[in-house]
Amino acid sequence: MGAKIYVGGLPYSTTEQELSDLFAAHGTVASVRIITDKFTGQSRGFGFVEMSSDDEAQAAITALNGTQFGGRTLTVNEARPQEPRSGGGGRGGFGGDRG
Q1: In what order do the strands lie in the sheet with 29-36?
Q2: What Å distances lie between residue 40 and 9, 43, 44, 52, CA to CA?
């Protein structure tokens, strides 16, 4: 399995095919996913690309980080694992007997 790359600063109109084509110049693209808003379906301006090897991923990061794409500056780096989300919500820290 290759390295997963975070790509931020994408124009909202970018398609997964365009993103794949951009990274294909630097190696074999295993998968591409643009993150969309779950309610509107509109792009959130970032996505993930998985390259077939760590060397290709590093070459793509080096070549594309800070470059212009569709009038916006890309942020390209190694993806970090998603942080676990804390559940909860609720009503704050009031507790005990008021009685």
Answers
A1: 29-36, 43-51, 4-8, 75-78
A2: 19, 9, 10, 32
If we measure between CA atoms, which residue out of 21, 98, 26 comes closest to residue 64?
26
The domain containing residue 10 runs over which residues? 4-78
Cβ pair 74, 6 in contact under 8 A? no
Q: What is the CATH number of the domain that holds 13?
A: 3.30.70.330
Report yes or no on 99 lying in a domain.
Answer: no
Provide the number of structural domains found in the chain.
Answer: 1
pLDDT at residue 94 in the model: 52
Question: 43 with 13: CB under 8 angstroms?
Answer: yes
- The structure's pTM equals 0.80
